[in-house]
Design brief:
heterodimer; A: alpha/beta; five-stranded mixed sheet; globular; B: alpha+beta; five-stranded antiparallel sheet; 5 strands; binds adenosine-5'-diphosphate; binds magnesium ion
Chain lengths: ~120, ~140
């Protein structure tokens, strides 16, 4: 699905990176340690994290991550939003936990047919 | 593939620009038609070495060289150097401060990630003088 479809399907809020809403999401990864995400996040993932600082955008670009969801009601730093706009990485906000959001993604078929 | 050599500078503790050199390297490799899998591996190596300079190193000089059959990334800095290189390469080993850990750094996976995503690495580091990490990734 498109990153933009997540907004309605998961009831998340768009914070920045609107130009990336056409990015294709076909997998997901949860992680708050940046090197762990560098090591394991599949390309085309939506990335669920509590980290709101601007270095998450570089990680997303380098790992070809389609969108970021900040969970637990976290809000991004202003720098993060600026960077996300520049790079076209949608940053979406959720009040739910990673587990709850991951469950929703799974229900919508995200990552269910990936190894 | 055309031969290319490009040099970038990396500023220590500049978390605002951290990652930008790696992103430039990623787009350059993509534009040269390097296969996506190789670009991905090079991106991981570039990012982890760039972040190590930002967090632990001194003034950094990054060199990207692309030859017919090899990508080389050389990440040098004039910082404090690495005490025990073997220890630094152990998964989970990190001297990151609590502040760094709080924002998701310091997993002790950076050097191991570089090792996994490269074909060869050379490290030279002297206490008080700095560190040079040279990373090779075969193109074919
Ligand atoms: N350029 C560098 N200068 C000084 N020390 C470094 C440098 N790069 C790595 N180190 C040391 O090696 C350790 C392990 O690095 P790494 O595997 O990337 O893990 P992390 O970045 O999570 O600490 C660092 O915590 C640091 O002590
Ligand atoms: Mg590191």
């Amino acid at each position: 699905m498109k990153a933009g479809e997540l907004i309605e399907k998961l009831q998340v809020e768009l914070s920045a990176g609107a130009t990336g809403l056409d990015n294709t999401v076909d997998n997901a990864y949860c992680g708050d340690l940046l090197s762990d995400v560098m090591a394991h996040a599949p390309q085309g993932s939506v990335w669920l994290t509590i980290q709101g600082h601007q270095n998450i955008v570089a990680v997303a670009v380098l790992k070809e991550i389609a969108a970021i969801i900040l969970v637990n009601g976290r809000i991004p730093d202003d720098d993060t939003r600026t960077k996300a706009d520049e790079e076209g990485i949608p940053v979406l906000l959720s009040q739910d936990t990673s587990y709850q959001v991951a469950g929703q993604l799974f229900k919508h078929g995200i990552g269910t047919d990936c190894g | 593939m055309a031969e290319l050599e490009k040099t970038y500078t990396v500023k220590p503790r500049d978390f605002i620009r951290a990652g930008e050199v790696s992103i430039q390297i990623q787009s350059l490799l993509k534009s040269m038609g390097v296969t996506p899998d190789i670009v991905r591996r090079a991106s991981v190596c570039a990012y982890e070495s760039e972040m190590n300079i930002v967090m632990y190193g001194g003034e950094g000089t990054f060199t990207l060289r692309v030859d017919q059959d090899m990508i080389m990334i050389r990440a040098c800095d004039d910082g404090p150097g690495i005490d025990d290189i073997e220890l630094a390469f152990q998964e989970g080993y990190s001297t990151a401060t609590p502040e760094y850990r709080e924002i998701g750094f310091g997993a002790g996976m950076g050097l191991p990630n570089i090792k996994k995503n490269s074909d060869e690495i050379q490290v030279e580091s002297h206490k008080g003088e700095g560190t040079c990490l040279v990373i090779y990734i075969k193109i074919n």
